[in-house]
Amino acid sequence: MPKKPALQHLSSALADAVQAAGASVVTVDARPRYPASGVVTAPGFVLTASHAVQEDDIKVTLPDGEELSAELLGRDPHSDLALLKLSTAKGAAAQTNEDPQVGQLALALGRPTSEGMQASLGIISAVGGPLRSHHGGLLERYLRTDAIPYPGFSGGPLVDGEGRVLGINTSGLGMGASLTIPAKLAWKIAAAIQEHGGVKRGYLGVRSQLVELSEENSKALKREQASGLLVMTVEKESPSAAGGLMVGDIIVGFAGQPVAEHDELLLQLNGGVVGKAVDMEVLRGGKPQLVKVTIGEQEEVHQGHGRQRGRRFSHRGWRR
Amino acid sequence: MALPLDFSAVVSAARSSLVAVFAKRYGAGAGILWSADGLVLTNRHVLGQHTPKVLLMDERQFEAEVIATDEEVDLALLRIEAQDLPAASIGDSTQLRVGELVFALGHPWGQRNAASFGIVSQLGNAKTQGRRGLIPIIQTDARLAPGNSGGPLLNAAGEVVGVNTMIVGGDQGLAIPSAVVLDFLAYVHAPVMSD
Known about the structure:
Chain A is α+β, with helices and mostly antiparallel strands. Chain A contains six helices and 22 strands. In chain A, strand 2 (about 35-40) and strand 3 (about 45-50) form a beta hairpin. Chain B has helices spanning about 10-15, 180-185; strands at about 20, 30-35, 40-45, 55, 60-65, 65-70, 75-80, 100-105, 115-125, 135-140, 150-155, 160-170, 170-175.
C-alpha cells in the first residue's frame, strides 16, 4: 500500500521543514503584552515586525534559549519591518526562497514563548502588489496565506516545504488580516535599513498606466521591450513636473535600467535614489528621450502602535 | 492524475474506533475504542447527568459504565459490554514533532464521524490543578468544534496520539497527548489490554 508511507513521508518532511527553519526563528520581546517573533537574516541581525517593537529595551531569545539584548537599527513603516542588531553576532542565517508560487504548501512559524516552535499549515493563497496600506504606506509586493496567524507570529517567517523563508508575516499592515512580506523584498529592506537606517522611498509625482509598446517603439529603443508606463497625470510642483516630464510620455527606463512594469519603477524609486538627478528614459512622440528628474522623497507614513493604535482604529471605525 | 497523497486510507482505517458518547440532554461528544473488550476513552466534560450511551460506527448502541474519571486532565474511562471491538492503535505522543500532519475525528456540531486535518502547531505545557501540576499538551491547527471533544487526534500512520479536548480562541485546538492518557490509565489501575 504506497499511500500510507507517502503520507508519513509528507508528515515528517513538514516536521523537518519546521525544525530546519526554526534554527533561525527567534523570540522578540519589545512590547508590553505578548512577545513576537523574528528571523535571523545574518549572524547578529534579526528582521521582525515594526509594530512589535514598541519599547527601547529589546530582548531577543535565540532557539537555544540564550537571551540577548538588541538595538533597533531602523524601521520601514511601509512594510512594517524592523531590523534589530544583537549584542553579539549570533544566530543562524535563514535560507530564502525568492520564487513564491500560488498554491504551494507553506508553514507559518513563530516562537513567541519559551515553549518552542509554533507552526500552522496552509498554502500561498495569493501573490499581489503593490498595495497601499491603510495609513498611506506602499508595499511593493506581498503574499497571502491561509495558514493561521497565531498570536505572536508577527515577525516570524512563512516557509516552504524545505524550511526556506518565503517571507515575513505581519498583522500590522492590513485591516487586521495577516500579510507576508516576500523574502526578496524583506531582505532588500533589511539591507537598506542596515545601510541608511531606513528605506527612503522616491517620489516622482506622476500617475501612469501600463501600455504595450509597438514594434516601432522597440525599434526606436533598439531593444526588445514589451511594455512601458504611459504618463496620465503630472502633479504640479512635483519632481517630475520640475524635470519636464509630460502627460503622454511613455516611461521606458530609469537610471539606465528598463522599466516595463509599475513594480520595476517602484523598486527603482525605493532603491536609494532620493535627492539624486536621474535620467528617465521616455518615448515622446515615438522617439526615445532622456529627461533628468531630481527624485523627491515620499512623505513618511505614520506608524502607530501602542495607545496610538487604538485611537486610529476607532477613528477609522474598523473596530468597535 | 490521482493525487499521490490521499488521506482517506488513514482516516477510514482509524474511523472504526471512533464512537459517539451521549450523556447530556443535548449534543454528543466523541470517544475512542481503547480496547477490543469494551474500554472507551473520552473527555470528562463529555459526561453529564445521564448514564452515558455509546454509539459505535456500526450503529450498535450500549449503555456504558463509568470506570474512572480525572478532572485534572479531563479524561474519563468507560466500559461497554461488548467484545471483538475494533480498538484504536495507540501512538507515542512523546515522539511527535511540530509540523507533523494530524487528523481529528469526531462529531463537530453534530456532524457524525467527521474528519479534519492540520499539523501539530505546538508541543507545549498546560498548568493543571491536581497532582500533576503541569502536563504536556498538543496544539493543532486542525479545525475542531463542539462534538470533537473526546475524539482521537491521529498521526499520519493513523495512530491515536491525542484526545481532542478544547478549542481556544476559535482556531487553536488542544489535545491531551496519548502519554497523559496512558498515565491516567495506569493511575486508575485500568484493566490493561491483553495482547
